[in-house]
Design goal:
The protein is mainly α. The chain contains 7 helices and 2 strands, in the order αααααββαα.
């Protein structure tokens, strides 16, 4: 299970120490599936994304500090949940439709979904 979690962890340093921390923390950790789901959401946090990931904790630190319990501080307006995965709004039809509604656009106003998507992308770029 450690190898699966480590494969998904965005900062690949001190793997041996991380493996040791995993063994130490196994009794208090949630199931692997939940750990991975939380990790995917944490990857979207601004602190983890800024400065090239400079503020992503070392894997062993993450485990020893039980960081899977950290409160998420992501702006949910920029991400959506699709099939249990947290993705950027522009990576799913659901997210594009949600952003379109925020911008006052509806898919039925356009000849096709790709036209709607293009309009949403143009409009969101202007808003930024």
């Amino acid at each position: 299970m450690f190898d699966e979690w480590y494969k998904n962890y965005p900062r690949k340093v001190a793997k041996g120490d991380a493996r040791k921390a995993w063994t130490q923390m196994e009794k208090v950790m949630p199931p692997l599936e939940q750990m991975l789901k939380v990790l995917e959401a944490q990857k979207k946090q601004e602190d983890w994304r800024k400065d090239g990931g400079k503020f992503i904790p070392y894997p062993a630190t993450y485990l020893r500090q039980e960081r899977w319990d950290d409160e998420l501080t992501i702006d949910l307006g920029d991400v959506v949940e699709v099939g249990g995965q947290i993705v950027n709004w522009w990576e799913s039809a659901t997210g594009i439709e949600k952003k379109g509604r925020e911008l006052g656009l509806k898919p039925e106003q356009f000849a096709s979904f790709p036209d709607f998507k293009a309009a949403v992308m143009r409009q969101s770029m202007r808003a930024a």
